[in-house]
Amino acid sequence: MEEPVERQNPAAQENAPIWNILQPKFFLRAFMLYSIIVSATNFLKGGKSKYDKDAIIVRNLLKPLESFDLYVYLDQSSSPITNFDDKIPVWIERSIKFSDWNGGQKGDGVYNHQITLKTPEYLQKNQSIFLHSIIVKSGQTIDPKSTNYYRNKVTYKIKQLNKYMKKYYKRTANLLTGKSEKSDEYLKKADVIKYEVLNYWHPNVSINVVDHQVEYAKEKIPMPFDEVIEFDPLFTFYRPIVYINTFWNLRDEYQPINETVKSINLSLSYYPLSSLMFQLYMSQDMKPSYAVALSDEMEEDDNDYLKRAFLETNPILLAVTAIVSVLHLIFEFLAFKNDIQFWNNKKDLVGMSVRTVLFNIFQSLIVFLYITDNDTNFVVMFSVFFGFLLECWKIPKVLDIEVEKMQKWFFVIPKVRFSDKGSYVESETKTYDDMAFRYLGWILFPLLVGYAIYSVIYVEQKGWYSWVLGVLYGYLLTFGFIMMTPQLFINYKLKSVAHLPWRMLTYKFINTFIDDLFAFVIKMPMMYRLGCFRDDIIFLIYLYQRWAYRVDKSRVNEFGVIGEPELRENEGEEVSESKKEK
């Protein structure tokens, strides 16, 4: 059997911060949340809706606790079965009571049925198989040839069970020996195609009948019920809402189907579904229609992160995570806003590590080139590129830029000269900044060389370009947090933190703690979870420095400023008023 589907960009997803993985989908989830709220509101108002006097009110065909029979078939066709003579059902469950939450084998409302089937030949040949779910009132038949058949009272639902997913091929080899651990067949495919579409199977399927008794007029059906409710031709009732549920089937649980797979397992279950849960599921099913406009693929791995969190996380912790997810976005926006305001209003560079700013630009460029080389989707690329442009915007804030029109590269491109600003050169900041980076170079350069040697010897690469990007990206991801330490060193030497953008830093540091929470909610390796706490150490040192180097607003600081302007104005007004009283 072939190995499970290969993710499009495993390196980037395993190493990237978890919020960065989920963030590009925020607008999709925000739209989902909006849909859920609207749907829930419509549901709560559904029983109280007022219709025109002439409106025809229709009710559910099934009344509470009314019995019905469930028939399940498997077929190659996606069209309803009309001839049942040669069809054998895979499951028949009789006398199920509608909206009964205490039925089933264990009294929990759940009916289960498991079977093992010989793999159909057409499924082995990359064709599809469909589940046909049919519901009728007990005592009635589903056979159109029978006199006891009532077409309008048959609820028919069809769902494709197999799933087509892409398996990506990427030729990699050891750059020194030219050898690869991948099979010859894999390498041959990698030379010809980028990916192939394979047929995958998941054994779990749930059939749900929605516990929904709201009365409706034809023209006044709220979302998402307007897409699923089926009326009889005379508008005297609507059929029960049947939902075939595969939402909790995770991507890595699917197994490929080919000629070597002789049998497949199928685990069927039936249970009633509340209207609210149905709306939640429908909001997920509706997502592809608007998500396709933003990405070529739906990034199901990202959705699986969230599904796994729902399955494996304590509900209380999950609720807290949902709240802080919203806070994360707010704080991220505020940090972005205050970062721009700080640098836009910055008049001098005293106390600021210019080298760190330039290094952040280099780091953003490496990340962008790396994700581009790994075929990341457009949404993520745009997000990273926008962050890179923001960092580049700071260049004229920290450096003097001079365009020499008389001197040109290749007689066409004018030369551009960069130099440190006067406020930076004339202060002690440059001395301390150079000193900090010199000390860091003694530590980080050997680590970079060692990591590069390890990577070229033991890690297969697509080529030398990918190796350079991979080394720099992995190195920055592992040791990049150390580049925050030069600012700590400058603070220590100046014995001051007044020059820092504290609002922006505070918002960013709060988000690091939110990332820590995500690290424990989302499934990931333990070592990576521990790695999420690196930035917290830097933050704690910043807090200590803020406490140790408190700003005394009664004295002149290193910038020649006494306290806050607003404070001085208020104090001046109080003094003048006291003099008048005297």
From TrEMBL:
Subcellular location: Membrane
Any one cellular-component term (Gene Ontology): membrane
Transit peptide found in the keyword field: no
Short name of one Pfam family: CLPTM1
Residue intervals passing through the bilayer: 316-336, 348-372, 439-458, 464-484, 505-522
Keywords associated with the record: Membrane, Transmembrane, Transmembrane helix
Species annotation: Caenorhabditis bovis
Protein name, entry field: Cleft lip and palate transmembrane protein 1
Major localization listed first in the record, in broad terms: membrane
Cited InterPro entries: CLPTM1
Membrane protein topology class: Multi-pass membrane protein
Family: Belongs to the CLPTM1 family.
